[in-house]
What we know:
Largest sheet: 2 strands, parallel
Number of helices: 12
Amino acid sequence: MTPARRLVGAALGLGLDRLFGEPPTRWHPLVYFGRLMGALEGRLYRDGRAAGVGYAGVGLALGVFAGRLVTSNALATALSVGGRSLSRAAREVAIPLAVGDLEGARTAVSALVGRDPRDLDEAEVARAAVESVAENTVDAIVAPALFAAAFGACGTLGYRAINTMDAMVGHRSARYRCFGTAAARLDDVVNWVPARVTAGLVAAVRPRAAWSVLRAVRDQAPAHPSPNSGVAEAAFAAALGVTLGGRNVYGERVEVRPPLGTGRPARAGDIDAARRLSRDVTIALALALAAAAALVTRRRSREGSWV
Length: 307
């Protein structure tokens, strides 16, 4: 597949996801991949890093192999991208929160984040939702599209396999602290560039806040425990004029995240603002990929004419 076709396929995949969303859960290939990896974990699990390396290697190979079976890069990208479902999940938090249904909002936000929502107040629920939209704009939109543009169907489905494994075992719990290290580190590596591209796109689609976005990414994101989530969250916080970060409870484990942004605490309306920002980043990325495809095609046409 030529570079231009990979770029066009990635752009079309983003469009297909925005129009139609993901397949029903019972038919989604990622659901079957998750079940397969769950079964594989049962066979490979040992409380050590070597077993986790084997698990991550098999999962990545399965993702790349699936990409070889899918002949359409646009289809593979659409299957890997989850922007529409992300927006819908965030909206399901915003609606009850806006009408004062805190319990309903807590239940809905549990589909977006791994932290314990039981004691979250309105501001903390809003913060959790905005942080999730920011982080998943990288994981579910920008990264799979960039891997599709660079490596085709094998790249985007291989990326999705890595990200899915990280969601399954890349936790700092007693069970996965060693076994999940390989999947977590692999996810950090493949998301390093996409996270920073996301920050650049946020600055581009919110030009009035561009300097604040870049400054937050430069000065505040390095203090975040994740090398990539902190970049996306800092960019969204600065663009939305809010402060993210704070105390998160994961079962018996408590993490205190550094403040990101310099604005007010998040509130219900900021969830929809984050959804719109994520949508605009998606549109900007699709247009950039299409423009790059046009430039590549034009350059090759000129080179052919010269020859």
